[in-house]
Amino acid sequence: MIYLVEDDGSIRELVLYTLNSSGMEAKGFGLPRAFWRAMEQEKPQLIMLDIMLPEEDGLQILRKIRSSSVWKDIPVMMLTAKGSEYDKVIGLDAGADDYVPKPFGMMELLARVRALLRRSGGQEKRTEYTVGPLYVCPDRHVVKVNGRDVALTLKEYEVLKMLLENLDVVLTRDRLLNQVWGYSFDGESRTVDVHIRTLRQKLGEAGELIETVRGVGYKIGAGS
Fold first, then answer.
1. Distance (Å, rounded) from C-alpha 17 to C-alpha 26?
2. What's the pLDDT score for residue 122?
3. Has this prediction a pTM greater than 0.85?
4. Distance CA 224, CA 207 (A)
5. I need a surface site. Which of 39, 129, 208, 209 has the fewest CB within 10 A?
């Protein structure tokens, strides 16, 4: 999935049409708040950002992405009318992986998107987890219990993945907060407890795999 944040409707529709007709799945957002709502539900393979946006500019969005432990590895391409060398340096220094000034040709844009996806995809390592009735494939963002798909929010999914990556290790609430949310909620560790509760409910039988270690945190045992 590719996310495009562009407030110009004609440019947004043209880029989405080009990407989708080339076999890529893409969604567009005219406002940052709609983009952030989508980010809570699904982690995209690539984000394309305009700089001049209402509510918050593309560089602010980029900095938030790069400061998050959940989203920091997502490749980001800047699409902007600001085409000076200074603007390009600012964008790249803020963490952009590519910078395409407007106006741009669709064929060149497609080539650069494919190149960026190839580079980022080559860094991923396929891993699968099977613990009791639970199966998780992070590479394909798949969660199954007894062969049936389970739909999770992005935060629920990241909590589950972190527990699986640390089998038999007790993860404290503070560590989960820092790793999944990217910063600490002072005195708000109930945020983790609430997500664990809803995660257990959605996993059904497999929810019993998540053990509470009283006064410390949570874990999934390797032999569960």
1. 9
2. 40
3. no
4. 11
5. 208
